[in-house]
Amino acid sequence: MKTKIDIVILVDVISALSDGTLLDGNLAMMDNGHLPSTDQGTPELCTVCQPGQTIQWTIHAVDLQTPVEIRRITFLDTRSDVEDSGDAAVESPPGDRLSLNVWSGVVPPWAIPGAVYKYRLELQMYEGKNSVMTIDSCSLRCA
Amino acid sequence: MTQQLAIIVLIDVAAALKARTLKDNTYLFDNMKLQGSENEGTGDLVTAINGSYWFDGSQAEEQVMNWLPYALGAIPPTVPRSFYSDRTRDSDQEALAALTKIAATPGTNIVAELDRIKQRLGTRASVKSVHRAGHVRPGHKILDLRGEIVPSDSRDDIPELSNAAPVITGITGEAVDKQIIYPAQYGSPDLVTDGWYWSASVDTSRPGIYVYTMEIHLREPVWKHGGWLWEPVRMTFTSKIKVTSLPKRNGFTQADVGLLPLSCPGTP
Predict the structure, then answer these.
(1) Are B217 and B210 in contact (CB under 8 A)?
(2) Which CATH number is associated with domain B5-73+163-247?
(3) Which of B26-30, B31-35, B67-71, B137-141 shows the highest mean pLDDT?
(4) Is the pTM of this model over 0.90?
């Protein structure tokens, strides 16, 4: 079993800020898992994984001189619409040092085979009231 | 962070050539205001470079600086690359059309008309060539700030010329000597900066404020040997970087890597 899966997020920041959305081709996600993930290259990526594997999310802006960081990754509870925030709220570094976060974690042993775990990805592009954008079409699927 | 730093070096070339210094004629901007850069838009910019390190102290990310020089009061670098030679060709064609007209119109005062055409012909300035002894004439005529051909080649006129963009020819100083930044010149397919730009990667393991010097080459039109020549004028300008570094941490736990917060069956 492959021990680590990398999920890469590519964002066209200028286009996303101009359009006001991460859709319409402004965001692409892909992973290198050895099991067949679906919707590679789209915001609907479903990464197939197994308990014990480490998953790491990294983000890149298409234009290297534009800023984008992952603000938060929140798993949405599959049974209801309640958000699962995992551990009690932990102190995040200030907005301008979001880049200090390494978004990786291990798929827990209680992940149910076949279950789809949707998650919400919040991205921050510089600052201002329209700088935070979200998608929640991506997911993990336990093999 | 994956974002690269861009520093715009905006120089009032006409004023700098007059005062013979870049001090008070240079305006610096960077894209790190949110990260803590100070004095944006002035000559006293302090660029924030926020590094990060892993638990073993090794550098976690590469911070890259890029410098882009621009001339204030010049034809913008975003016009099509052929703008200068197109304007030159248009000017020559106007002159040819005027000559044809004189030839076709009987009774014109030929000398006066020729003089008038000559006044509007404009002139090319030669550029010093490194490969030959002397100067070479580039393909285009001198344009003013509005993109119009400067009409006369008389040395008594002081035309408002469109200054050539300044060129950075080197980055030196304390930050380089102490090996905080590693600058180099790179070629680029983006011709906005004539295809060259200076870039530097940063060693963020030694936080502090460091000074660096940019060697900048301006070009001044000078009347010599019966024509205009672009002569290089070398000047320097210093700026500062403020390097900080903080540890990387896990986004989910804010500590070390842990289990992903997927819902556990059986929990309420």
Answers:
(1) no
(2) 2.60.40
(3) B26-30
(4) no
Report yes or no: A111 at the B interface, CB cutoff 8 Å: yes
Written as six digits, the tokens of B217 are 């080459």
Helix (H, G, I), strand (E, B) or coil at B166: coil
CATH code: domain of residue A123: 2.60.40
Residues 96-125 of B with CB under 8 A from A: none
Cβ neighbors of B212 (< 8 A, separation 6 or more) are B171, B172, B173, B174, B175, B176, B181, B238, B239, B240, B241
Distances from the Cα of A9 to the Cα of A23, A85, B8, B127, B195, angstroms: 13, 21, 29, 48, 30
Distance CA A84, CA A38 (A): 24
3-state secondary structure of B242: strand
Write out pLDDT tens, residues B91-118. Answer: 889 889 988 888 888 777 888 888 888 8
Q: What count of CB pairs under 8 Å joins A to B?
A: 113
- Any A CB within 8 A of B262 CB: yes
The pLDDT, as a whole number, for residue B84 is 84
- Which residue of B262, B264, B267 to mutate against A (max A Cβ within 10 Å)? B262
Q: In total, how many domains does chain A have?
A: 1
Strand partners, B63: B202
Tell me the sheet residues that pair with B229. B126, B222
Q: For residue B3, which residues of chain A lie inside 8 Å, CB to CB?
A: 61, 64-68
Q: Which residues of chain B make contact with A59, given a CB cutoff of 8 A? A: 2
| 3-state SS class at B138 | coil
Chain A residue numbers with beta carbons less than 8 Å from the beta carbon of B2 are 59-61, 64, 68, 99
What is the residue extent of each domain of chain B? 5-73+163-247, 75-162
